[in-house]
Amino acid sequence: MDHDRPAPVPIAYSINDAARAIGQSVPTIKRAIAKGDLTPRYPNSKPIILHEDLLAWARALPVERP
Fold this sequence. Notes:
The chain has helices at residues 15-22, 26-35, 51-60; strands spanning 12-13, 49-50. It is mainly α. It has one domain. It is globular.
């Protein structure tokens, strides 16, 4: 195993992994989905969030505290 190579960036996340990747809670991700801010994809019955969609959502968040 090559320990000098960084781990590849996932192309998609489960809801739990998306929350972990962005440092937020699962309910926060589910609220974003319910509002239409994040679009889940369904390769089967389990939704995934694409890396670029999660990144775009994070970049669109306000820069000021509410």
